[in-house]
Every structure is written in structure tokens, then in C-alpha cells.
From TrEMBL:
SUPFAM superfamilies attached to this UniProt entry: FMT C-terminal domain-like (SSF50486)
CDD domains for the chain: FDH_Hydrolase_C
Name under which the protein is recorded: AL1L2 dehydrogenase
Family annotation (InterPro entries): Formyl_trans_C (IPR005793), Formyl_trans_C_sf (IPR037022), Formyl_transferase-like_C_sf (IPR011034)
Top-rank taxon: Eukaryota
Domain Formyl transferase C-terminal, residue spans: 29-130
Organism listed in the record: Alectura lathami
UniProt GO molecular function: catalytic activity
């Protein structure tokens, strides 16, 4: 009660908190979240997950900033996929049916599930090479009649 009264009266002592031993880290900025590729797979995974969702760990692919989301360590044989050159990486990534596989300097793998481009468009990493394709839905006569009935 005494402490509350001191605060209410404006007489409570003010002791600045020392910086030594402080554990608070300031807000991360996007420019500081670039992926450093000379690390083991576990460190890459921790970096990506640590920056997921804000500000997002990123790398340069095809001269544009691509942000990586949803990583997990991959403990299996190297999957089949299409190679993707990533600036600074010692080994190209692989776009597989599960996502983008990236490699640490220890040869182990990390699976990244989603990628976001500079324009804000997010895609599943497995669709990197097919992101520009569009498909058209073709309805059968029966489905066209059903659609008309629903309208």
C-alpha cells in the first residue's frame, strides 16, 4: 500500500535499470535478417524460424529478395527436384514436391515450405517454377447445368 501511495504522490524512487545483464533484443529489421549461408543446417533452420513471421529471413534468388517461411530440418536422403540458384549459397537449393530444400555447410538439409516475393505474393515453395502458370476450370455439361441451378 505504501508503494502505491508513493507512486500516486510522485515520490517513488526512480532507479534506472542497468544495461549489463539485460536480455531484451530490439526489434529486428528486414535488412538484418538476410540468411548467412556458411552455417550448419540447424543454424539455418533456427535463423529462418526465428525470423518467421516478422521480419522474415531472406535471400536473393534471380536478383530479387525472396523471404523464407516455415522451415523444418529434413533427415532423409536428398530428394529429387529442380535446382534453384541462391545467391551466396555454396550449393543450389532443390525445388521438390514438398518445398524448397536448402543445404547447410555440414551437408544436412532444411525444408522451406513457403516463399514470399518482394511484391508481397506468397506461394508454396514447391510451386516456385510453376508460379506463372494458370489453369482454366473446364465444366462438363452436367456440372454447367448444376452451376446454373445453383445460380
Amino acid at each position: 500500500v505504501e508503494a502505491v501511495h508513493l507512486i500516486a504522490d510522485g515520490k517513488a524512487p526512480r532507479i534506472p535499470q542497468p544495461k549489463e545483464g539485460a536480455t531484451y533484443e530490439g526489434i529486428q529489421k528486414k535488412e538484418n535478417a538476410e540468411i548467412s549461408w556458411d552455417q550448419p543446417a540447424a543454424a539455418l533452420h533456427n535463423w529462418i524460424r526465428g525470423h518467421d513471421k516478422v521480419p522474415g529471413a531472406w535471400a536473393t534468388i534471380d536478383d530479387q529478395v525472396v523471404t523464407f517461411y516455415g522451415s523444418s530440418l529434413l533427415d532423409a536422403s536428398v530428394p529429387a527436384g529442380q535446382e534453384l540458384a541462391i545467391k551466396g549459397a555454396s550449393r543450389p537449393g532443390l525445388v521438390t514436391k514438398s518445398g524448397l530444400v536448402i543445404f547447410g555447410n555440414d551437408g544436412k538439409m532444411v525444408l522451406v515450405r513457403n516463399l514470399q516475393f518482394e511484391d508481397g505474393k506468397m506461394i508454396p515453395a514447391s510451386k516456385y517454377f510453376s508460379s506463372g502458370e494458370t489453369t482454366t476450370l473446364e465444366l462438363t455439361e452436367e456440372e454447367k447445368k448444376m452451376a446454373e441451378d445453383i445460380r
